[in-house]
Amino acid sequence: MIPAAYFLGFIFYSFLGWIWETTYCSVNAKHFINRGFLNGPIIPIYGFGALLVMLAVNAFGSLAVPTPAVPINIINILVVFLGGMLLATVLEYIAAVILESFFHIKLWDYSKNKFNFQGRICLKCSLFFGLLSVLFIMVIEPLTTRTTTQIPEMVINIAAVVIGIILAVDIIITVSSLLKLNERLRAAEEIINARVGTTLAEAAKIRESLHEKIEERVDENLVISKFHYQIQRMARAYPGSISLKHTEIWEKLKKQSEKR
């Protein structure tokens, strides 16, 4: 398989991951949630996970991949399940560490799930990744391979270049916004604290009941309207996310974003 085909496979599997997470989270929340770290309809961790599992399976050969001579059996399924579960779990843990270290944010938190480790990974999700790996290797990957082999190499290369450019721009925009996230959260927090302090002092002279209305106005005008679209989108996409440095203002941002 040519490198461009691997890249398009990465994009396709990332897209399938986006479809799954968006559907699952939207059904649970009873309203549409556009999941994803990036603007485009992809979740890269699924693409990376799929490629890792595929490369690992290729290394094991017939032990994991069924062939006409060696049909699907319990050994195939078990090897793919355990290997996929391990690789995907390690990948998820690494992704969580990177997000927390560089952006000081947790997009997911499994602390309330049984058998979790540091809230970054949990047994439930690991088992799901194992099942997903079996589905991927036994069904999805063979179908996509047969399809891509029928597409001219030039078309694959051109598509890979175009999509690669779009993805690069998306990554730059998203990462740039997230790198400024804590700076914006801190600034908003300082403005809100100063404004609330001032307005409360004035309100005390008029009527104590104005407190709640003032806070609502400050939150709406100073927090939501001043935040970049990218950050608002992230807050809506991951309602369970946690800011490690500015928890209170991030929670307010998430609540207000849900109303918009």
Care to describe what's here?
With 260 residues, the chain is mainly α. It has two domains: 150 residues, no CATH class; 80 residues, no CATH class. It is 73% helix and 3% strand. It is built from nine helices and four strands. A two-stranded antiparallel sheet has the order 1-4. A two-stranded antiparallel ribbon has the order 2-3. A hairpin with a 3-residue loop joins β2 and β3. α1 packs across α5 and α3 crosses α4. The longest helix has 30 residues. It starts with a helix and ends with a helix.
Can you give keywords for this protein?
73% helix; two-stranded antiparallel ribbon; 260 residues; two-stranded antiparallel sheet; 4 strands
Concise overview:
The protein is mostly helical and 260 residues long. It has helices at residues 3-29, 44-60, 74-103, 123-148, 153-179, 181-206, 210-224, 229-237, 247-259; strands at 105-106, 116-117, 121-122, 242-243. The chain folds into two domains: 3-152, no CATH class; 180-259, no CATH class.
The total count of helices amounts to 9
* Major pleated sheet: 2 strands, antiparallel
- Unreliable stretches (pLDDT < 50, length at least 5) are 213-223
Question: How many individual domains?
Answer: 2
Number of strands: 4
Please trace the helix and strand order, writing H or E for each element.
HHHEEEHHHHHEH
Helix content: over 70%
> Please, what is the average pLDDT?
79
Widest sheet, order of strands:
1-4
Broad structural category: mainly alpha
**What fraction strand?**
under 5%
> How would the global form be characterised?
globular
